[in-house]
Amino acid sequence: MRRERPMVTTVWDEATPGAPRVVMVYGPLAPGTEVFAGQRMLAELFRLELVGPAADGIGVDPSGLAELLDQGAHLVGHCTGATVALHVAAAAPQAVRSLTLLEPCALRATAGRLAAYGEPAADTPGLRPAALLTADWPKLIVNGAPGRPYDDRRGCPHPTPPGYGEQVADAIGARHLRVEDAGHAPQRDRPGRVNTALRRLWQG
């Protein structure tokens, strides 16, 4: 029997009623309020819903996240949270308004295919890259600049290798943004640059 994977949600919302929803998924290495602290100011324009692992460290269940999207939301994921967001966007594209992956990891892209690390270079079960390629909403992948040491304090088990973001962007038909002088959390290291890209994406 599959164990349920509860989610913890923090809401930042100072926007006018009916503002666009943004669901932001983080991994187990730091709380969402820290991971996305640089995006807090965007709550004046958007309703930001931070979603991540439960206290026991178990990750976010993609099916639960798909239900959370409900009638539609912009979807953002960081690190392993980006992998979850990618699965949900492929499985429920009708609920997604845009997809942003910040330093995605735990998946690799080869010859237009997506696979989990350690698995054969074939489509990961449940992940349909074709659904992402044909989606009519915008997609953005953001990486820190290559050559900068990753933040060892976070202890990230999946440091993103140089060139990986471009490969994933090609596989799903996304725009790629490389943020100079930023590490594994470009949205934290250089929030101004990332926030500008996010506002443009969410405001169309």
Structural features, described:
- This protein has 204 residues and is α/β, with parallel strands linked by helices.
- The protein has one domain: Rossmann fold, CATH 3.40.50.1820.
- Helix content is 27%, strand content 24%.
- It is built from seven helices and nine strands.
- It has a seven-stranded mixed β-sheet, sandwiched between helices.
- α2 (62-69) packs across α3 (80-91).
- The radius of gyration is 16 Å and the shape is globular.
- 43% of the residues are buried.
Topology diagram in text:
Elements: E1 8-12, E2 21-25, H1 32-35, E3 47-52, H2 62-69, E4 73-78, H3 80-91, E5 96-102, E6 107-110, E7 113-116, H4 129-133, E8 139-144, H5 164-172, E9 175-179, H6 186-189, H7 191-203
Helix pairs in contact: 2-3
Radius of gyration: 16 Å
Mean pLDDT: 81
**CATH H level: which superfamily?**
Alpha/Beta hydrolase fold, catalytic domain
Order of helices and strands: EEHEHEHEEEHEHEHH
SSE-based structural type: alpha/beta
CATH fold name: Rossmann fold
Which properties best describe this structure?
204 residues; alpha/beta; Rossmann fold; seven-stranded mixed sheet; two-stranded antiparallel sheet; 7 helices; 9 strands
Short description:
By secondary structure, the protein is of the alpha/beta class. About 25% of the residues lie in helices and about 25% in strands.
